[in-house]
Amino acid sequence: MYQIPKWMEWYGEAFEIFSFNALGGPKLIQPFQIVDFFKGTTAVYLLILMHYFQNFSSGAYLYLVLHGSYGFIWVTKDIICPDFRARIKQSLSGSIFLILLLVYYWIIGFIQISGYGINNPSKQRISIVIISYVSGVFLMTVTDIQKYYTLKFKKGLITEGIVKHNRNPNFLGESLIYGSFAIATGNDLCYLIVWSSFIIIFLSRMISKDCSLAKKNGWEQYKKQSHLFLWQIGSNKLLSYSIYLITSLYIYVSYSTDGLIANIFKDL
Question: Whole-prediction pTM value?
Fold first, then answer.
């Protein structure tokens, strides 16, 4: 039987403890209440910033539509397909950690609207932002809806549908969503926020999830046919890694040497 490496177990357990039981104390608040409040009021927050800074540029409106609509979609999804883990009460310190994380994401909008972002984005930038955002919303919602209704009628490991060859398409989706926010602003600090949140939050949650899935029947076969974050192409993992590596190198080299990708993204 496959054994989860000890470092992964530690990483996953540390995240769970820090998220729900950090420093102990009474458990009073359910995480979804905090998350839905912040994401549901993001549009209001951004409109206040736009009024305060008198920034009604195309870039500000683009960001408002992106992040504001994401908050609405998230809250709607959570009402229709609630995440039961987010209904587990957490300690006060865990709630504070969650609030700080959500405020951390709000910094991106502040940077954009306060004048440190791109006020007049190019058509190329807008196109890439929309593609990234729409793809991310699709992956996030489809994955969460499939998970909710599958587990509602059948408990156990989910190995079909959108998660057949990718164990975390919802986290890939959220990475694309927040990545689109960073691309919209064009600010290096926003890219840093997105990358750091991926490493600290998304990666730890994926590892924690793998630790949980490893205890279920069928895990060994499922792990062979899927990747942690991207889709496995064919039955050979080496082939998948090679394709993703070559594609990444091509994009990087083409962009750096003014190739095809650079002509598309030259104004990004």
Answer: 0.88
Instruction: Give me the helix-helix angle, 58-80 and 42-53, nearest 10°.
Output: 160
The yes-or-no verdict on residue 76 having pLDDT over 90 is yes
Q: What angle do CA 120, 137, 252 make, to 5 degrees?
A: 60
pLDDT digits (tens, 9 = 90+) for 41-67: 999 999 999 999 999 999 999 999 999
